[in-house]
Amino acid sequence: MLHLNRRTGFTLIELLVVIAIIAILAAILFPVFAQAREKARQTSCISNHKQLSMATLMYSQDYDELYPMAYGYYNGVGWLYLNTGDVPCNSTCANGVCGPNWTAGMGSFWANAVQPYAKNYQVLACPSVGTYAASYAQAAGAPMNAKTSLTYNGLLMCYPQAGIAAPSSLPMITESLGKAGQDGANQSNPILVCADANDLTCSYKGTSGTGNGGSSGWFGFAATAAVHGNGEVYTYADGHVKLKLLSINILSPGRTDPNREPWAYYNTNGTPGAVWKLGTQINFFRPDNAF
Asked: How far apart are the C-alpha atoms of 269 and 251, rounded to whole Å?
């Protein structure tokens, strides 16, 4: 009788072919998985923006249709326009031991002012951001520091809703620190310059204004502006949220469109190199900009 030997394994060539096929499939699928993961993070970021949008507009409705303050006033020091806001506002002063001036000044920062409506500090950060710089230290017994990466348009500080020239085009909440955030602090970007501590008012005064609110400035980005692909999530003054694409490939000064983008050009690391200004104010964030 003829007996046939049965193969019970794979040859080396067959194993190598299978490994090669798996490697090719992995090379094809891994970028797809990464894109899907980032898309999910972007969706979560949009949701955070939407919650903050609703909280900010609800605040405005309760305060004579004025937009929230970007920062507060510290009695004896003045307007805190160069400071980051302590988030939560008593994170370094357990039970307010730093005094009422500190609590009032820090509590007026946008990120803290809208919390009675948002009721969630976690919405201040975008999931696509993974780097957070340590800011205010957390004292024993104080609330946990909040991580933040979303920023408020400081030119809207105490500005009336009715005065907005183009609500659907004016940024209200952006990611204007780039793909990085702060641990225990928050700041607006851009901000109104309010250097006169004796003037207890501070609001936008137009492109040729003087005194508090007569000019504006901006803080540099902590990381690339390309938070989501080549763009950032923007919330506009009418409350709608969308992904805004940026011209981060433009590295030559003055080459972007000042009516479509706030930054005049970008550095090789993706951070803005300059900002468009009209007179004394940063153009793209002006509440009287009709676009």
From this structure: 10
Which residue type sits at 184? G
* Predicted confidence band of residue 129 (pLDDT cuts 50, 70, 90): very high
104: helix, strand or coil: helix
Exposed/middle/buried for 266, CB within 10 Å: 0-12, 13-18, 19+? buried
Q: How many CB atoms lie within 10 A of CB 113?
A: 23
Phi, psi of 242, deg, nearest 5? -160, 165
CA distance 203 to 221: 24
Q: How confident is the model at residue 82 (pLDDT cuts 50, 70, 90)?
A: very high
CA distance readout (Å), 100 to 7, 75, 89, 93, 157: 84, 9, 11, 11, 22
User: Whose structure tokens read 């299978």?
Assistant: 18
Question: Does residue 118 surpass a pLDDT of 80?
Answer: yes
pTM (2 d.p.): 0.86
Owner of token pair 């000064």? 253
For residue 14, give both structure tokens: 């067959």
CB-CB contact of 248 with 225 (8 Å): yes
User: How far apart (Å, rounded) are the C-alpha atoms in residues 280 and 257?
Assistant: 19
Whether 221 and 176 have beta carbons less than 8 Å apart is answered as yes
At position 131, the amino acid (one-letter code) is T
**Cα distances (Å, whole numbers) of residue 69 to 117, 135, 152, 156, 233:** 15, 21, 10, 8, 22
Question: pLDDT (tens digit, 9 = 90+) per residue, 84-106?
Answer: 998 998 776 765 667 777 778 88
User: Do the Cβ atoms of 102 and 85 come closer than 8 Å?
Assistant: no
Query: Measured between alpha carbons, how far is 289 from 98 in angstroms, rounded to an integer?
Result: 40
